[in-house]
Amino acid sequence: MQQQELRQLARKLLEEGTVKVVIGYGQPVAGAPAFPVFITDPAKVDTLVWNEQCFHNLTGYLKRKEIRALGKPAIVVKGCDERTLVMLEKESQIVRSDIYVIGMACSGVGEPQAAKCACCEVHMPRLADSVIGQVDNPPVDASARYAVLDEFLSAYPTPAARMAYWQEELGRCVKCYACRQICPLCYCERCIFDKNRPTCVDTSPTLKGNFGYHITRAFHLAARCIECEECTRACPVGIDLRLLNQSLSRGAEEHFGFRAGVDPEAELVVGSYSLKDREDFIQ
Amino acid sequence: MSETITKDALLKLVDEWIGQGKRTIGPTEIKPGHIRYARLEDSAALKLGGYIRPQNSVKEFVFPKHEKLYRYLFEGKEISLAEADGEPAATVVVGSRPCDAAAFDILDRVFNWDFVDEQFNARRRATTIVTIACREWDDYCFCTSVGLGPAAPRGSDVLLMPLDGGAYEVRALTDAGRALFAGHTTPAEVTATEPAGPERKFDMESVGEFLRASWDKPLWRDEALRCLGCGACTYECPTCHCFDIVDEGNARGGYRARNWDACQFRMFTVHASGHNPRPDQPSRQRQRILHKFRIYPDKFGELLCTGCGNCGRACPVGLGVLNVLEAAAKAAVEG
Amino acid sequence: MEGNGQSNVYRPELMEVIGLHQETIDVKSVRLRFKEPERQEHFSHHVGQFGIFSVFGYGESTFNICSSSNWHDRLEFCFRRVGKVTDAFWKIEEGDTIGFRGPYGNWYPTEEWEGKNLIFISGGIAMPPVRCAIWYCLENREKYGDITILYGARSVGDLVFVDELDKWAEYERVRVIKTVDPGGETPEWKGDIGFVPTVLDKASISAENAVALVIGPPVMIKFSLPVLDKMGLAAKDIYTSLENRMKCGIGKCGRCNAGPVYVCKEGPVFTLEQIRSLPEDY
Q: Which residues contact B86 (CB under 8 A, 6 or more apart)?
């Protein structure tokens, strides 16, 4: 039903010239994860699908030159993906009126359902130009938000235990940068890890190079990460990267009352300055 | 008459290898849902069934993701160099797939092209590969489209053919393989059925011809637009071998190492002047496919691909070489 | 001699810096000698080949060996300060040790050029890979016909090896044309003023029985080629040296290929005819 409506809307937008490209999900093989498609021809809108295999946070493509070159886009987003749009606009990376946002009501992705869906508060997109579908949006216990993190912390209660865990996990990292490439908020034209004057972090996939990379990247996303968990999904060697981000997200919420991308009016933690900013941690 | 071994006897043998101090590698569940080739502490960790193939390839045990080439030491203004590591450890890979083993034969060509890469050769010599033929395959597999198959013996020292009932027919293919299994097999009047393998997905001949003239075709833009430009496909691939060379150390000294690198990264070909011959994802995807299916075969007579399907499985946006080749096959027919 | 004969093909040999000369505001030429005297004695290369030079702790970089293959007491290269490794090279001093791997690549077919008239065209920092060929040919003067050297740069301050330009002009049947871009001249400048392709067009150089070696920035090459064509030079008689990002230099790391050709193994020297058959992958 939603899929039909989506295809109709896409056709209309393209035929009327409202947009030049529809960024959505396609799925040539039923059952396999859906993947990003870029429809420029209204005759091809039947490529678009909508189901619980639509994991990808497509907003990452808005920063790409070759996508922007296609012209004004319509983009299919779930409620969680929408949080990225709020952040990208606040960080002056997109102009909201330059994008047509198609919001899909979503009851969760994945089979079994992804962990992030269990504590989702945005089953219904809030800021879209068109919303397709209708789904209940029950309130969520705030403590459920960091359930995965809490589970980890109780399984590894001491710093020594956690260090051993991360040495094992980050030891597998091969520096493929899938996590960075898929992250919609990693949009720096020249990433610090690609610079070599100076080389801030060893590029080698040694423990030193891997710790340096992941911890630095997590901090660069502190109070910016919108918890889409795409980094964790993309990692080919199975590192649970979202733990690092959740830890910092909880810090942002506890210390600054801020959750990235939730309130379009909220001032950024890192990107704004207020005379009322806390100073009590400066000793 | 064939030589055979029961599953229990095989596991006991694996424990023997581990006991002998051999670095023993096999598929193991490193965490729920992730089966990868990794070092085995004991045979109980070896996972022999219930999945199609491990997520990674075996190449990292012969061509590591990070390898120190040599060390340098600063003593005032003087610099001295020293070799980095000792002899590579004797290694056995048990439970390799034919598509993993075949890669080594293929990689031999480039690593011995005029200049002899002793690092690669030494590790290759120290590694014995015990492959288990496949009885199952999935939609990502396409070994039969690139001249291989579920029981292809290339690159293996021993090929184990699964028999009904859980035992294996043991086909020792090299002296190293024979030495490993000597005295541990039982003769029996059985021959394993040769598995058919996945259906051929495309005709390499006609796809190759199409690729030869494909430089400016829209195929690359159409297929590669969703490519993220990460290295997941490259690093899980048994035959990808591009590498970077870096210096790492401090004021006292350090080492020069080589690390895996990927032609999918924007920085791969960027000149010091800022000029980049491959400035976008479509041109980089084109390089990947042409390198594997035109450049390498033209130079060395081998496809730089074994059809294992790891790229498609690892890619966060479902863009394996199979996707591109099927699109190329379609474009070849449509003209 | 291929490589250094050691079993570790990636391991460099140690060289001592015995001379440094600042050519322009951001270009230096470096003179080196193998730390092992015996190695220096037995080392040989062909003009056109390159080496991979390194500053330990910073990394490796690829440069043409710009000294003549007839000079057995030293090796030279020339670099512009543009990145991490060349920054480190900028800071080295006489007596310092650096690493060297090579000589790699193919070379100018100086034997095929014997008996011919030679036209050497270069611009800016691309003079060094031409310089070695010029010296080589001058040192075997009787084997070659008329020699024309056309060299230009953005400004007088950007010219490299200026002293040698004047020395070359003293040889028999050698014509040296030096030029700077309009606006790049100084009051004392006695050479031409104009872009290299323009000066080439007006220079009336005979293409009879000639080959040309043309190395320079892409825009210079782009506009010089039609002039050479007009002069009557065939694509197979025009040579150049290609550049592509390199790491291993020995055909293994998969980086420098221009389409099906590995620049480090099948190049860097190509004829225009060969280059035209390559895709634009450089």
A: none
Q: Does A282 map to a domain?
A: no
- Give CA angle at B7 (B3, B8), nearest 5°: 115
In this structure, the answer to whether residues C128 and C237 fall within a common structural domain is yes
Beta strands of C132-173 (E only): which ranges? Answer: 147-153
Residues C100 and C125 in one domain: no
- Domain at C83, CATH number: 2.40.30.10
Same domain membership, residue C229 and residue C127: yes
For the four alpha carbons of B253, B258, B262 and B267, in that order, the dihedral sign comes to positive
User: Does residue C49 sit within a domain?
Assistant: yes
Pairs across A and C, CB distance < 8 A: 6
Beta strand extents in chain B (DSSP E only): 2-5, 23-31, 34-39, 66-75, 78-83, 91-96, 127-132, 158-162, 168-172, 186-188, 243-250, 253-260
What does the DSSP 8-state code read for residue A152?
A: H
* Residue A108, both tokens: 């969760």
H/E stretch holding C85? helix C84-90
Rounded to two decimals, the ipTM of the complex is 0.94
What is the spatial distance between Cα C5 and Cα B67, in angstroms, rounded to a whole number? Answer: 21
Mean pLDDT (chain B) is 94
Domain count within chain B: 1
* pLDDT score of A32 more than 80: no
The model's pLDDT over B82-115, given as tens digits with 9 standing for 90+, comes to 998 788 999 999 999 999 999 999 999 999 999 9
- When pLDDT is cut at 50, 70 and 90, the band that residue C2 belongs to is very low
Number of CB pairs, chain A paired with chain B, less than 8 A apart: 92
The range of the structural domain enclosing residue A169 comes to: 142-256
Using 50, 70 and 90 to split pLDDT, how confident is the model at A66? confident
* Whether C196 contacts C216, CB under 8 Å: yes
CA end-to-end distance (rounded Å), chain B: 52
Helix (H) or strand (E) holding C132: helix C128-139
pLDDT of residue B335: 67
Task: For residue C128, give the CATH number of its domain.
Answer: 3.40.50.80
- The answer to whether residue A276 is domain-embedded is no
* Domain ranges, residue C225: 117-241
Whether C80 is in a domain gets the answer yes
> Which residues on B lie below 8 Å from C56 (Cβ)?
72, 74, 79, 247, 254, 256
Identify how many contiguous H helices and E strands chain A contains and give both numbers: 10, 5
Q: How far is C84 from chain A (nearest CA, A)?
A: 6
Q: Total domain count for chain C? A: 2
Query: What is the structure's pLDDT at A141?
Result: 82
Residues of C in contact with A197 (CB under 8 A): 83-84, 87
A272 min Cα distance to partner chain B (Å): 30
Q: What is the pLDDT of residues B225-267, one digit of tens each?
A: 999 999 999 999 999 999 999 999 999 999 999 999 999 999 9
CA atoms within 13 A on the CB side of A86: 23
β-bridge partners, A74: A22, A100
Please give the residue range of the domain that contains residue B108. Answer: 2-334
User: Do B233 and B314 touch, CB atoms closer than 8 A?
Assistant: yes
Domain tally for chain A? Answer: 2
Query: Cβ(C108)–Cβ(C48) under 8 Å?
Result: yes
* Same-domain check for residues C190 and C141: yes
Residues sharing a CB contact under 8 Å with residue C131, sequence separation 6 or more, in sequence order? C66, C78, C161, C164
- Those chains having 3 or more beta-carbon pairs within 8 angstroms of chain C are A, B
Asked whether residue C280 is domain-assigned, the answer is no
Task: Indicate whether A37 and A155 sit together in one domain.
Answer: no
Residue A153 and residue A216 share a domain = yes
Task: Check C247 against B287: CB less than 8 A apart.
Answer: no
Residue C3 pLDDT more than 60?
no
Do residues C101 and C246 touch, judged by C-beta distance below 8 A? no
pTM of the model: 0.94
